[in-house]
Amino acid sequence: MQKRRQAVGSGGERPLLQRRPLNLPRRHEEQSEVEAADIQGNVLRGYSHPMAAYIFLRIDDVVKGKALIDRMLPRITTGQPWCDTAPTTAIQVAFTYAGLQRLGVPDEMLATFPEEFREGMAARAESLGDRGPSAPEQWESGLGTGEAHVLVTVWAVDNEHLDAVREELRQVGASAGATTVINETRAEALKHGRDPFGFFDGISQPAVEGTGVQGRPGDGQPNGAGGWRDVATGEFVLGYVDEDGTLPDAPAEPFHRNGTFMVYRKLQQHTAAFRRSMEEQGARYPGGAEMLAAKVVGRWRDGTPLSTSPEAPDADVSADPLRINDFSYMDDPKGLKCPMGSHIRRCHPRDSEGFFGGRLTNRHRIIRRGRSYGPVLPKGAADDGQDRGLVFVCFNTSIWRQFETIQSLWLDDGDPFGVGPDKDPLIGCPADESGKMTIPGKPPFFLTPLPRFVTLRGGEYLFQPSMAALRWLADF
Question: Among 471, 470, 464, which residue's Cα sits nearest to residue 44?
Fold first, then answer.
């Protein structure tokens, strides 16, 4: 069992972790079939630590940088279950392609990594829909330039413990001349699991085979018999069988097993603009502003799926972990309950018409991790100019097949859903405010103009190695 570790500078009583919303209780756990001790934490099991920091480092001195990795190894949290209570801090480490190059990984090994990882997110921005204010030239300093080498993610129970680790990373790296912090974002989970737009978030996560964590209805893949099955482990962790029944393509040893590819995107959410648009256009929508917002997202603010309760939120559904994610699109082929263009339907089409009962979605699942950042905008308040949003993180074994398919083909292109050039209404990046969303009905309602509600502030493609591969990087 993994031992608890105390952060530098911590002491006294352990603060409590953020309380989980009642409709997302801990899943029943059994014996894991994966090599959890070799897999970095937060891939197969999410953390409930409320505070987080995403710290990008530049490696200034390779030898000293490797020594810093070696020093951090005992502090890195693995996928093993905790013995009793959770540690006060948890740390994960991932590398960009430029970072692996900087560490001196041989060219013949680097060549075995997939093309999209080697190119990086910034080079693929146009195909991802990252244009205009979301284009790489507008990103925060240090991201998308090749300067970011390492991402250290720190989770903590409170700001005191978070700051202790943050300062240690800065001071140790700088004093040794090993690393420099070039970009950092602090994040904090909002109350009741809501996002800056006010919606209950993080509901739909894939149930992963072999982890020992029992999935809830709707977490996995449709099994064709009205139920659900777990998604193959190899869709998310290298070295295990995937949905095709084979091992996924992987880099050369020691990166071939128990590692995963990580996508980092800092998404600024324009909360005031979203509220204003829903109120103004909701005045002419028959269902009003709240229903219009639900049609955009695909769920009511409390998490109730439109597919289950299209006329109003249902507290019995949203409070029941066995019902909140247990729904299908097969009985709604025209999107009269949940529009084809809604955010959650485009992110995960499930068994929508044209996706062959879910068979065309089972190779495009991702595990989402992340945290909200920035202050909450009070209800009814005007735009205060503060930066707020979501640090989006996901894990997958193929960035191209999984994340990029969702981002490029489903969110930035409406053709698979029969909505033409319409982009995702929530996080899509319109070239201007002339975009629209079609809400089916008699007659249909056209949500237009459709302003930008989310702007990408920066991103990177990373590889999160196994513990064995981390030890190799520190020693080779």
Answer: 464
